[in-house]
Recover the amino acids of this structure.
């Protein structure tokens, strides 16, 4: 990579950081609207070109289909989660009693162990316990804040839907407006760069979203076959964990399999192992075929992007991190393309 490309990359990352940190909170519905418009663009083009519909109607039909698919999945998830949470609430006294007995045993043994620990190690254990307590408290507070933010969220959804429609319907008009502002050569470079960055990023993101949804559904159905309680909640958690490379769903599956092996439930352990292996293998094969190895992020890059995103932006950084990594991959491709074409001056 040349010095010029390094400079451009640095400027690109600084601009992305400043935008996400200071501008994004105020323009999120419109950014999400533009993002959804870009993701839905192939569907809109299909309806517009193949079915000879006007772009406005093609946009409406595409958004309705998207809303129906997403709405159906969300409705199923929410309804199942409500049923599972209700069941958990009914079983809570029993679980609480069992947990209390286990906790008493753990604390009794821990108290004996605590006295024998060297002071630095004891202090480290205490810090870990305090961190765990803070984490659980943060989850509880976050749930309360989520409920309080519901009205504001509804308003954001309305603006997102409207902006998505306008971005799709008036795509050509927006390009024409930008073309009138920028010089012809600059506008040509802008269109080429934008196409290289966003088309590759959109392809990766479309497939990743699809794979996460499919992973959630397959895990949930697989767990329901063996009548696992809270299968939907576990399916959602496993789908979220699937974003994390290497570790991923293994964080739940491996201890779960070991638990059943220890308690002599060999058939359940084998079933969980087959389910975990089958879902992981199928997802990897589908991801490679749909995206292509050249566009996928290396697991280490994904892990670093998740960590940096979380450190820089908090919980929302888990989304920002990989997204910026994908955009950066497309940006590098746009810098390298001229070199391959022999246009580098």
């Amino acid at each position: 990579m040349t010095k010029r490309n390094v400079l451009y990359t640095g400027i690109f990352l600084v601009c992305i950081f400043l935008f996400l940190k200071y501008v994004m909170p105020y323009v999120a519905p419109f950014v999400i609207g533009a993002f959804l418009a870009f993701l839905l663009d192939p569907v809109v083009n299909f309806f517009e070109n193949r079915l000879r519909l006007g772009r406005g109607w093609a946009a409406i039909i595409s958004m309705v289909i998207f809303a129906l698919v997403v709405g159906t999945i969300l409705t199923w998830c929410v309804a199942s989660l409500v049923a599972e949470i209700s069941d958990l609430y009914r079983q809570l006294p029993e679980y609480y009693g069992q947990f209390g007995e286990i906790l008493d045993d753990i604390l009794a043994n821990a108290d004996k162990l605590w006295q024998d620990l060297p002071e630095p190690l004891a202090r480290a254990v205490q810090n870990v316990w305090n961190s765990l307590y803070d984490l659980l408290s943060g989850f509880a507070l976050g749930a309360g804040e989520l409920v309080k933010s519901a009205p504001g969220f509804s308003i954001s959804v309305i603006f997102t839907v409207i902006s998505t429609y306008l971005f799709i319907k008036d795509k050509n008009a927006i390009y024409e407006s930008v073309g009138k502002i920028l010089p012809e050569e600059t506008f040509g470079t802008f269109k080429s760069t934008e196409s290289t960055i966003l088309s590759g990023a959109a392809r990766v993101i479309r497939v990743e979203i699809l794979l996460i949804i499919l992973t959630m559904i397959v895990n949930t159905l697989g767990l329901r076959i063996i009548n696992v309680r809270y299968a939907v909640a576990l399916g959602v958690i496993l789908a979220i964990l699937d974003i994390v490379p290497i570790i991923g769903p293994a964080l739940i599956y491996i201890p779960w399999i070991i638990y059943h092996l220890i308690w002599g439930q060999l058939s359940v352990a084998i079933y969980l192992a087959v389910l975990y292996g089958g879902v992981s293998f199928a997802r990897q094969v589908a991801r490679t075929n749909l995206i292509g190895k050249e566009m996928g992020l290396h697991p280490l890059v994904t892990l670093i992007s998740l960590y940096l995103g979380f450190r820089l932006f908090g919980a929302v950084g888990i989304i920002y991190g990989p997204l910026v990594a994908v955009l950066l991959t497309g940006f590098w491709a746009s810098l390298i393309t001229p070199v391959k074409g022999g246009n580098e001056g």
Q: What stands out?
A: Residues 88 and 94 are 10 Å apart (CA to CA). The chain has two domains: 1-107+159-181, 182-340. The radius of gyration is 25 Å.
